[in-house]
Amino acid sequence: MIDEKTFLEQQKIDGLNIASTISLLIFGMLFAALLLCLILMRDNFVVWPPPAFLLLSISKPTLSTIFIFLSSLFLWSAQRNLSTPEKLKKARISLKLSIFLGFCFLAVQFLFWRELNTHGFNVESGAFASFLQAMTWIHAAHILLGLFFLLIFLNRIRKSRTDFFLNENEYKIQTIKINFYSSFWHFLSLVWVLLLIGLFAPL
Amino acid sequence: MTYAHDIHPAPTTFLTKYVFSYDHKVIAKQFLWYGIFFLGIGGMMALLIRWTLAFPGEPFPVIGPILFPHTNGVVPPDTYSMLFTLHGTIMIFFAITPILIGAFGNYCIPLMIGARDMAFPLLNLLSFHIAVLSAVLMLASLFLPLGGAAGGWTSYPTLSTLIGSPGAGQTLWCLSLFVLGVSSTMGAINYITTIIAFRAPGMGYFDMPLTIWGLWLTAILNALFIPVLGAGLLLLVFDRVFGTTFFLAGAAATTGGGDPILFQHVFWIFGHPEVYILILPAWGMVSDFLSFFSRKPAFAAKATALSMTAITVLSTLVYGHHMFTTQMSPLLTQTFMTLTMTISIPSAIFFANWLGTLWRGSISFDTPMIFALGVVFVFGLGGLTGLYLGAATTDFYLHDTYFVVGHFHYTMAASVLLGGFAGIYFWFPKMFGRMMNETLGKIHFWITMIGLNGVFFGMLVVGYAGMHRRLYNPFVYEFMQNLIPLNTFITWSALLMGFGQLPFLFNFIYSLWKGPIAVENPWQVGTLEWTLPSPPKTHNFDTIPTVKCGPHEFGNPLLKTGRDFQYQTEELVR
């Protein structure tokens, strides 16, 4: 028979695990619905993407993809290095690189939007441009949220904070939260790839 | 200080006790007041709509000249569109949802599963205050120069785009619902987590009261499908504010226009589960109440829970039946029709279980029970009329008529409203520590029951006769003029139903202060909340209870306690 305090602490840990899974599902459903709209819209077009779009260079979306992929990779490395206090330094470096690459992704997105507007692919120029702009806006808004989460993660493992491994339950709780932040970031990388396919893959 | 009190600080000021409370019971009451307030507003809008249909061109009595001074009290045509739009929106999202899900979910879940609070009390607090923000946005839209949203509660483009609704009211409508969606998903995360992780030791899923099953399934649907509506609303806001063309056909011929039907897909992927989001808590409560007041174990309770689960799953696959008239492929039509009809199977199972519970029970007709029986009746009618709309052949004729309005009011309004009232009468003693008046409760029930059947059955009849919904004055068409008497009858029934809520209001408010003091367990049932004082203290349980039997242990002949029921904390007597 476990005592009440242990029971309640276990409830808290289980609760956090469940809530983080549901939260990811909620974001998943939002993007699934948006991608469904994109798929249904593609069905209305004879040619996708519109021929005019072929005049644009795809260098920026390619660069964005590289940045977000590398960012995810460094984040994965940071997660792997959380197991012992000795590896925490490596985790910090990987995480900082991941965050930096996240900001690089956003910077390239800004340049991409500018290029789109310069070439007349503004939001009012038809459904394709509407999707191209709005989907990348919504994704970028979530990238901002993801970066905020990663900064919280960085704060949790900062050098001056020495209590990370001390309390077993606290360690479990922090790990669940960090796993959520990281899963959210990986999820955004996956969404970016799906968006690219949905937006640019020819019919 | 025990560990129990560490969950959240005990309230010390008025603000922390009644406004920014972390306590799930206070938040439940906040949602209850919120819902009742909007029930009044939505109900008043319904009366304005009905008055216009029965007496076109005549001023609405008493408040008409105040509300519409420029037309001497007559509801103007553009306002009529706003009224039916906001009546639907307010009743669904701001009245039924807060009462059935916000109030009962918050109140019942921790108490009935043996928890001290929700998993995340701060999230719970935020959920309510975000709902208030959403309500402010929605109400603010009424005061804009071009008024509130007028594209119907479904807000189909192009009615809801800048072409159909040029004012900012529709934009605020979208933002309000988006914000409310955030609140609802926060609530859903809390409900699902609490039910899965915070159940008392010994409480398996099938030991949970069916009320909790209903609320749990609702929360799952909310978590999965509110984001889908969110996506549609985001795109609609982009169309309206930034000039995108997701839902505008032919807006830019060179690069291809958008598609108004796209919104219907997104809306109904959410919208059909939404029907079940609203009804599942009521089903759960009714399933429990029928057992409690028949003094019998719920007949095949596991099958009822599994049927509700099956309906939840199927509800996610049938949205296309709302779009039969959008020229979808016949193959899809048949698929959606078949899937829709499949819902009849689990529905029939749990409906039969309800009757099985009542069969040879020792039924006491207390107010919660008669409301629960009312749900059985009106949901039967609502469910059966749904078959005609789920079958493409009949739907083509009935689509967009008052038959649809009558059907969804039977399911979403009548059933849910009666279920909500049953819940209020049942848990009022636990919530406020006082009893409501039984006689007034029964008067309330009969007037409501007669009134709502007059309204909604009348709608089925005029709809079948060909009267379209959303027409300001259908009687400009000669063939509809013979429906005027029936429409007048519907309106008088609506007024009767409206006035029938006065005994409830009086009873509710009077009983809060002057009702007889409630004992711990006035209904003599064994679920965990009734092991606590009325009202329970801030942290519910001093010691987390251990559950040893199910929630419907009635009429066991081996019982020697002098009671005919067992508490869930007692070992099952065999």
Description:
The complex is a heterodimer of chains A (203) and B (574). Chain A has 203 residues and is mainly alpha-helical. Chain A is 77% helix and 0% strand. Chain A starts with a helix and ends with a helix. In chain A, 32% of the residues are buried. The model of chain A has no long low-confidence stretch (mean pLDDT 91). Chain B is mainly α and 574 residues long. Chain B has one domain (23-531): Cytochrome C Oxidase, Chain A (Up-down Bundle). Chain B has 17 helices and no strands. Chain B has helices at residues 14-19, 24-54, 64-67, 77-113, 121-140, 169-197, 210-241, 260-294, 301-315, 330-342, 344-358, 367-390, 392-398, 402-432, 438-464, 484-499, 501-514. The longest helix of chain B has 37 residues, at 77-113. In chain B, 55% of the residues are buried. The model of chain B is unreliable at 1-5 (pLDDT under 50).
Brief summary of the model shown:
The complex is a heterodimer of chains A (203) and B (574). Chain A contains 5 helices and no strands.
The secondary structure category of chain A is: mainly alpha
Total count of strands of chain B: 0
CATH superfamily of chain A: Cytochrome c oxidase, subunit III, four-helix bundle
Tell me what the CATH architecture of chain A is: Up-down Bundle
Total number of helical segments of chain A? 5
CATH architecture label name of chain B: Up-down Bundle
Low-confidence stretches of chain B: 1-5
CATH class annotation of chain A:
Mainly Alpha
Subunit organisation of the chains: heterodimer
Low-confidence stretches of chain A: none
Top-tier CATH class of chain B: Mainly Alpha
Number of domains of chain B: 1
Mean pLDDT of chain A, rounded to whole units?
91
Going by CATH, the homologous superfamily of chain B would be: Cytochrome c oxidase-like, subunit I domain
Using CB atoms under 8 Å apart, which protein chain pair has the greatest interface? A-B, 41 and 45 residues
The number of domains of chain A is 1
Strand content of chain B: under 5%
Instruction: Assign an overall shape of chain B.
Output: globular
Biggest sheet record of chain B: none
Averaged pLDDT of chain B, please?
94
CATH topology of chain A: Four Helix Bundle (Hemerythrin (Met), subunit A)
